[in-house]
Amino acid sequence: MDESTFRPDKTEQFGTTTGSDAATIITHMIQDLESDNINLHVPALRELLNIIVDNCNSKYLTLKYKLMPLQNKFARQIEKNEEFVLSTTIQHVIGVRNGSDDKIILAGAATDSIIQTIFSSDEQISKAGSKALVELLEENTEIRKSLLTTGFISIVQLTLPNETLTHPIQSSSSSASMQKETNVPNHVRNNLLDLLLKLAGSAEDLQPLSILIPILERIKTDGE
């Protein structure tokens, strides 16, 4: 086996090794991540994620070993492969642990991944994500404010542009036409609309939603 190949059981040693041994482990891991041998990348990313999760002082590791720029090698390739999933998860853990204490910003960490699941091609996963987010926004003011102010509205705009709302939501023929135009599965569209209506019904300040009035009006018209 190549000397730089990372061995999975080394993360078990990380919490009990000396500083020099720990440095050796992570150095080998980084060598694997920088290697041209793509078969080394996923195992190394998994073990790096384990180390980051298991060490609350991940700030030290992040800075010393320049872990955030290292993840860009995999995060810049916007493809839903395992390297992208693991590298962005590592960045997520580092960000939540060491980022803002502002509750509105921090709430985004609780919703971003759930919003991703709503876009799943699997209808059950998409619905589960929608239901989970509805529960969160109904229970938590910061979650509602975060959805209104930190990007969710823009996602709705991107997914449901006004010009596509010239077709009735429930009509099978028009739904097929709309799906072709937007490339958004019908179940994703409907789950987003359900979530949007819940948000509109529970938000203290509706001003951020004003840009979506055409969408809301169309929903009301199609429901009558």
UniProtKB/TrEMBL annotation:
Matches recorded under InterPro entries: ARM-type_fold
Would you tell me the protein name for this molecule?
Uncharacterized protein
